[in-house]
Amino acid sequence: MPSPRQAQAFSSSTSSESSSVPPLDDPLTARAAGQDSPFGDQSPRASLHPVLQVSQDSVPVTQEFPSLPSTKTRTSLKHKYSDLFTAAATETASSDNAGPARRPTNDDALDLGSPGVLLNRKRSVLAPASPDASPIRQRTGKGKAALLGGFQAADDSKPDNPSYLRPPSFAESQFATIIRRQRKRRIVSPTNNQQYAAVSSILDLEASTPTDTPPSNQLPYAARADDANATELGWTNALRRGELKATLDCHHDVPTTTLVSDRQDPLMATHRAWEFAGWGSISLLELPASPLNSDNPRTAQPPRLQFGQWKASALAGNAVTGSVFYALPAVVAVSSVLSPISILIACLLLYPFRPIICELASALSASNAGNYSYLVNISTKLVAVLAAAITLLDAVATGAVSAGTASAYIAGETLTSHAHIDGRLISVLLLVGLAALCLTGLRDSSSVALGMFLLHVLTMVILIIAGVVAWIRSGNSLLHDNWSIGMASLRAPSTGKGIVRAIFDGVCVAFVGLTGFECSPSYINQVKLGEFPKALRNLHIIVVLTEAPLMLLVLALVPMDAILGGSNVLALLGQVAGRGAWLKLFVVVDACLVLCGGIITGIVAFCGLVDTLCDDRVVPRALQRRLPKTGATYPSIALFLALTLIMSATCSFSLTTLSSVFSVSFLCVMTLFGISLVLLKYARPSLPRSPTTNLGMVLLGIGIGITAMAGNFALSPVIIFQTLVYFVAMAAVLVALARRVDLARIFVWLVEQQRSSWLGRLPVKLEKQLIGWIRNERKHPVIYFAKTDDISVLANALYYIQQNEPTSQCKLVHCYKSIDTIPEQLDETFQLVDEIFPTVTVDLVFVEAPFTPQVVHAITHRLGIPISRSFISCPSGRGALVGSQHALSDYGGLRIILP
């Protein structure tokens, strides 16, 4: 293999050619002139490409390629396209023929025995048959050019053979050479001014040659033409021969430097030149031959736990049905005897949110992080992070309110005894104890959740039946007294607010009794197909049939003074209805159990979202550390405990204040569901989902949420400030972590401003450390599964990655069943995209396998990239990547970044 100096020598000779006549040994220029190398694939220079070497640890796979087109077919193609060149380019063609390399004839291009033979009809490139032909290669119309119809060739000699031309591609134009030669003017590493040990691409040989290299006496044309991967279709020939293999152990983290700075301080050589990520490469990834690569739809979805409608109802049902314990006192405080009407209206107003959540869940059923997962597939990552802050706030409020309400019931039982326990201490002990219980790995037990849910429903049924019997026995006298007291307070001139306003305020507060519905999408990927809407229906029916009747029984059997004076109103109802302490004790035990289940629900929602944020590299992956035996993520559980205690302490353990904060955060999350669905309908209209919700119903749900939030703010303006403080604090931390690389860039700029200060060389050292930290943070690659060679699609995908992901590496993975199906200009488009985004190394990886869930998981495992950092376009409509054979949920969390 020639030495690097020899490679520099022949490349320097290449750059010394006249600009008017481009060097014909240049691979892209040779492709533009239609000159395939006469030397074929026999050169030893093919080993210069670092990623074109066969990986030693690759699993050998026998590759079978389709047979070549026959000579007869290619001869017909030659006659078909022989008239696609105009006579107006005679001078250009003549000047190109003056080069030392021989222009191959049509017979050479169609010779099936040549090593550089074209692979298929789509990639046929025919040289002009006469010296009058144009050097710009023309192909049949494709894509937008085909839709426009092209232009008719002006050839008077053959009026009966009109041909349609298309604009030259990137590789066919001279811009390829011009852009590539600009590389050596900007590939400058200010922190490590050394040339990398290997060239990242065969197309960078000229760009990697120092400008002061003396000319060599070697023949550059033969050396360049001998390179099998520098010819017209060298990479496809290498793909056919099995020479294009991915070397997964090569990490190109060291910056490439090809030009020494003229300045004394290399850090000031080029503004942020240290962000240059290097040029990409083309490789073939071989997957292990295993059943995972099968295209059998029966094995498309890996086995996982599947919940039915009742277990799915129980997981969120403990939080939904348990909210009745802290909702009734809060509603009575604002709407008095009109509370049953307010609660019933609030329960009915929950209906528009059911189809909203169901449509979102059906469209993105593999996403189990609620609004964050929905918005990250629809909008930008910053918007999704803000939604995650609200969801985390709601989960923390769930734990704080559940612990406060359970402590109120326990403290109420010890109020008359000598062993009275402070409710604040009970709340802290409950939070700490349940966090420790979750560390044992019991938080995900659906059977335990179902048992607690059935026990609570049974308790409520017994309480309602006993209350109705007691009401029949006692009559309406107490209800009449409570009605008189309540209506008098509502109509009082000084404090009264009227019947309508009282009902409206009660409706706004009563939404706190519906909390828990927002947690249901956190386990959607574990629910059987078609069972999730039934689970939401079950929860809605239970809420409607229990909360409003229980409120009416409280007003009929418990005096108004006792209702307003305590938080354990259902325990008082049990004491009166059961004519003794047995039913009261049963209600207290049930309250403690179901409210503890609400705390666990908050922990599950919080930890699940934190895990998703860790997978997306929004927060540090240290929060995903697990205990060896139980697998519990102890950092996230500890963080939940700390935040819950902080919220409870800042609210002075006041159940009224906590309930108000909880109600507002719940309404924010429910409103975000409606906003997410509107964005989904607008940005991903072709995404398959069933059922679909009318836009009017979606807007109605958004209006209900906004109105209820406004009503809560009007009742207690201080809640605005308190909730805003919690949200801003959580959002600021998440945004700072998500944009930590951008913040580090700002710090680098600030340090650069102190370069001439009294600090000496401290700014230089600090800047080098910051740059090293930024490079370390950006070294984690992402995957984009590309199906088309459309430049707009790939450019938009790379733009999204550059704006939303702190990475400097992107793998464009293309899965194909046969070489004939590979897009015609994918290699040229890949080169252009790599040029457009110099801060991201774009690698083109071919995988000879169908795009199935097994193949996707095998690719991510082979490349060492999480599935959450693998992106696709919208899997339906134009440019669909997911066939009808596999649902999007089978792929396990692929992110949709383009329409």
UniProtKB/TrEMBL annotation:
Membrane topology: Multi-pass membrane protein
Protein name: Uncharacterized protein
Region (Disordered): 1-77, 90-115
Single GO molecular function: amino acid transmembrane transporter activity
Keywords: Membrane, Transmembrane, Transmembrane helix
Location(s) in or outside the cell: Membrane
Listed InterPro entries: AA/rel_permease1 (IPR002293)
Membrane-traversing stretches: 324-351, 382-411, 423-442, 449-472, 499-517, 538-565, 585-610, 631-655, 661-683, 695-713, 719-738
Gene3D superfamilies: Amino acid/polyamine transporter I
Keyword Membrane: yes
Domain of life: Eukaryota
